[in-house]
Amino acid sequence: MTKRPIRRFFVLLTVYLVVAIPFKAMNLIPGFTDVRPVQALGPIYGIFFGPLGCLAAAFGNLVADTVDDALRWTSIAGFASNFIGPLLVWLYWTRVSRTPFSLRTARDLLRYCLVIVVMAVVEDAIVAPAVKLVYPEVDFSFLAAAVFGNTAGFPIVLGIPLSILLQEEMGLKPADARLD
Amino acid sequence: MNRLQANLCLLCVTLFWSSEVIIYSCIPEGVPAFATTCVTALIGAALLAAPFHRRVLDALRAGGVRLVLAGLGLAALNSSYNTLYLFGMKSLDVASSAFTLSMTVVVLPVVLLSMHRRVAARTWVSVALVLSGIVLALGKSAMVSANAPALGIIVGGCLLRAVMIVLLADIVKKHDPLVVTVLFEMFVVPLSLIGWFFEDPRLFAGLHLSRTLVSAWALYAYFIVAFATTLNTFSMRRVSATNATVIYSMEIVFSLAWGALLPGGIVERIAITPRIAIGAVLVVAGALAEIFNMGGKRKEAQA
Q1: Do the domain assignments include residue B303?
Q2: Is A3-169 a CATH 1.10.1760.20 domain?
Q3: CA-based, 20 to 30 A from A45: which of A100, B167, B194, B247?
Q4: Chains A and B: how many Cβ contacts under 8 Å?
């Protein structure tokens, strides 16, 4: 690995932590579960930075857990889901889709939303059973709904405008199919 | 960014603005509103200026004094209308405030007409839908209970806001929107510092910096100041001022949704009556007609 991807990885990790940590320090909506707008960054990292971005999202989540003193065995599942979810998004746009990533039409937007929903289901299927296994007292349906809400809601509400800004106005190009 | 994307971005900006109340509820009591504006504008400007400093310097060299004055003018208008809103809302109840604050959507086409600018027929339809939705949702009592001086102050604020939106739409079509955002936020800092000084002359010495306050300020700076303002200026380059204002009017729908969904400690709880629901549907219909360019040329959405 050359210096450039390493530097990029640390820049992405820093951005992730800068967004994640303030949310860890406060309970934004009392009575509701953890609100995690940082989840919007996972698919964006996958789309624009490929596997390197997915790794940054996974490590970012792990470091944020450590900073918050919330590092537990279930963090392994969190690491896996935060890597696999964005990776699926990257794989879809580099291996499955016939057209490159774009959000220019209503059809593109709908397709993006569907991919995000699939990603959220996969992440939920990794995290929720793992947490239930380690902490049987946890309300499984509430936890699953919270994980799904965070992993599908924020990438749609926040991720769509952020992707448009990055791609259309900042000139960032989606990652290609290479594993670098 | 095409028109559809710009409208979606504006919708997101409106959602962020409506959620300000949630972040504000996390700010400890006693922290002046101007302190939050000042500190978060400083953080937001720094966040944007740090990675794009070369772009800012290049634009300043090219744009010169005009660009700096544009940033200062926008910041001055923004601070003025926010101050008028603050004073006006002190004498009105929530429903009356919400109604009058939404008046920008009506004031703006009038401002445009007074500047001899054309307003599309479709936009008038959207404005009519939005206005009827607002009137229906808030009811007659909201308009009747409002006192005249306070109403006048808020309508004055709406007028300044409308002028600011028109100017912003013009400025970002000539200059780099990112640089306009940075300059705007940079000028908001000293202007809000003046307001803060009048509220509490001790300034920073009068603050008790807790972990919650720093976190709330960080969130406000990232999402409301840096992200939403940048998104707003970039989107404004692709749409007209009236178009943007129709989308902004969705704020009242988002506020109703927060009022219905969130716990009472954060927002004033709102019971969704059929009247409110129909009003909200009309506002959404007006915004959708603008977003999807209903009746317009399909080609425009692809541009």
Answers
A1: no
A2: yes
A3: B247
A4: 68
pLDDT at A14 over 90: yes
Domain range summary for chain A, segments of one domain joined by +: 3-169
Helices and strands (DSSP H and E) totals, chain B? 15, 0
Is the Cβ pair A22, B5 closer than 8 Å?
Answer: no
Q: Which residue has the tokens 């934004």?
A: A28
What is the full DSSP assignment across B147-197? -HHHHHHHHHHHHHHHHHHHHHHHHHHHS-HHHHHHHHHHHHHHHHHHHHH
Half-sphere exposure of A4 (CA within 13 A, CB side): 2
R_g of chain A, CA atoms, integer Å: 16
Question: pTM higher than 0.95, yes or no?
Answer: no
User: Quick one: pLDDT at residue B303?
Assistant: 37
Q: Which two tokens stand for residue B247?
A: 């989308």
Cβ(A151)–Cβ(A123) below 8 Å: yes
In a domain, B301, yes or no: no
Q: Is residue B299 part of a domain?
A: no
- Asked whether residue B298 is domain-assigned, the answer is no
Q: Which residues of A touch B23 (CB under 8 A)?
A: 28
DSSP code for B222: I
Look at residue B110 and tell me whether its pLDDT is greater than 70. Answer: yes
Record the tokens describing residue B249, joined without a space: 């009017």
Return mean pLDDT, chain A.
88
ipTM confidence score: 0.86
- Domain total in chain B: 1
Rounded to an integer, what distance in angstroms lies between the CA atom of residue A16 and that of residue B212? Answer: 20
Query: What is the DSSP secondary structure assignment for residue A32, as one 8-state letter?
Result: S
Sign of torsion over alpha carbons A25, B227, B100, B269: negative
pLDDT at A27: 65
The string of pLDDT tens digits covering residues B235-284 is 989 888 888 888 888 887 888 788 777 776 666 777 778 888 888 888 88
Domain holding B255, by residue range, is 3-291
